[in-house]
Amino acid sequence: MEQTKGEPFFAPSNIRELVDVTPGNISEKLGTEWDQRGMVRMGKKQELRREFQFFSITGYAMILGCSWEFALINVVLTLSNGGKAGTIYMLMVAIFGLFFVCLSMAEMASMAPTATSEFAPRNYQKILSFSVGFFCVLGWQTSLAATCYASAQQITALINLTNASYVPSPWEVSMLSWAILLLCIFVNTVLFRKLPFIEGIVTFIHVLGFFAFIIVLWTMADRGTASSVFTEFETNGWATTGLACLVGLNGPVPYLSGADSTVHLSEELKNAAWALPRSMVATAISNYITSFIVVVTLMFCLGDLESVLESPTGQPYIAVVLNATHSVAAAKVLVVVILILVVSCSVNGVTTTSRQLW
Predict the structure, then answer these.
(1) Phi/psi at 201 (5° precision)
(2) pTM of the prediction?
(3) Three-point CA angle 68, 197, 22, nearest 5°
């Protein structure tokens, strides 16, 4: 197929009703020439605008993973099922396993950067793609509900820091979750064209907040011994320590699984065959390193395990920050940082979930 300079590589039948495609905005609408060639090779029609580039899509995936933030939140699951040592070792197990999954998916994404399955026999491709997509939709919708609920919990924790007598009712947390979901839908519809710009700002907060937590805890908190951190386990009534740790594995796996989320936006990414796999690996490595540092820091600065788990805020990490800073105001600032990032995670969750459903 011959191509005249300034014209899209697509034949007219391969373009959806993107009637506003002009020589001046081909890159924004259709991506690079390699994007166009890839879509033709896979027999796909370009139906979405390619708004994202490498750095914006990497920031998007980092925020959707929200790894070090949920590493703080999800210790409530691992501390009681595995203890300090179990929390660290199960995190290492999850990182080891999920990294190879990420590498495999990144390689496939470099060959076929599309939101649908290409790696199946042609005769069974539609049914297999639908089946996998169906379960992926369920998984991402469940994840979205969890992140909205976690955002609501940060709000109730802030209220408890202000008014110690406040005890949130389940219906209050549920209504806050719905309000956060509606906010996320608003951002993904009305403000979608600004989403790459928003991702850049939130990524900056993501990096800045990481260092804020690390510096505060290492400089102000009392630290435990290495033996207590790496050798003390909690069984929580389970028959063996190993079984308790396996139950606690439910804590780190969800927040380490977000590197593949960019696949669902591959048809909205410029130069996708090059940028997508590199973004996935960069996101995975960043999330693994930051979450590991945060978990080890938190375990050293934890203090008394029982009192932390019984925190009236319902968030053990807030009790650790309070014990370290002895300042409610400082704790509120750090919780607000977590709230902003977890709400942003929910926004990106709506983005990925909607693409899966579509």
Answers:
(1) -65, -45
(2) 0.81
(3) 140
